[in-house]
Amino acid sequence: MEIKDLKPNAGNVDLVLEVVDKEEPRTFEKFGKSGSVCNVKVKDETGTVKMTLWNEDIESVKVGDKIHLQNGWCSEFRDELQISSGKFGKIEVVEAMENNTVLTNDPNMLNPQMPEGNEGPDSEETVEEEVVE
């Protein structure tokens, strides 16, 4: 199954997805019990969809993880499809994003001790200095 195949109010959703964004978790109280809920944006080759995480699933899923939703549920809220594990589904992290991996294009973040404006050891300026010495 793929995201493009999702239909509102349908069960038995089985998808392998990548987590691309995660909102801040919210707490709630219902029927005298407290819990947590969090929305994440997930994608596959065919599109993106919002996914609702509940309680312990919130901490186990991180941005960049590849997850497998088994026997999930698809609903519709404000004309937008949403998926969740529902009562009977399961979310499994298939491939976890490394905790120390940083995705950036900022050269100062990649090499913080390098002064601004210096292009690094491969720049022509640095090479000329090495040749002169």
How would you describe the overall organization of this protein?
With 133 residues, this protein is mostly beta strands. It folds into two domains: 3-98, OB fold (Dihydrolipoamide Acetyltransferase, E2P), CATH 2.40.50.140; 102-133, no CATH class. It is built from three helices and seven strands; from the N terminus they run ββββαβββαα. The protein has helices at residues 56-60, 107-110, 124-132, and strands at 10-22, 26-30, 33-44, 47-54, 66-77, 80-84, 90-95. The chain has a five-stranded mixed β-barrel with strand order 1-3-4-6-5. Strand 2 (26-30) and strand 3 form a beta hairpin.
Instruction: State the secondary-structure class.
Output: mainly beta
Strand order of the largest sheet: 1-3-4-6-5
**Overall body shape:** globular
Number of domains: 2
- Average of the residue pLDDT scores: 84
Number of strands: 7
Helix share, percent: 10-25%
**Which H/E pattern describes the elements?**
EEEEHEEEHH
Query: Do you know the CATH topology of the largest domain?
Result: OB fold (Dihydrolipoamide Acetyltransferase, E2P)
Q: What's the level 1 CATH class of the largest domain?
A: Mainly Beta
Fourth CATH level, the homologous superfamily of the largest domain: Nucleic acid-binding proteins
CATH architecture tag of the largest domain: Beta Barrel
Give the N-to-C terminal Cα separation. 63 Å
Alpha-carbon Rg, integer: 22 Å
The number of helices is 3
Let me know the largest β-sheet.
5 strands, mixed, barrel
Question: Beta-strand percentage?
Answer: over 45%
Unreliable stretches covering 5 or more consecutive residues? 125-129
Quaternary structure state of the chains depicted: single chain
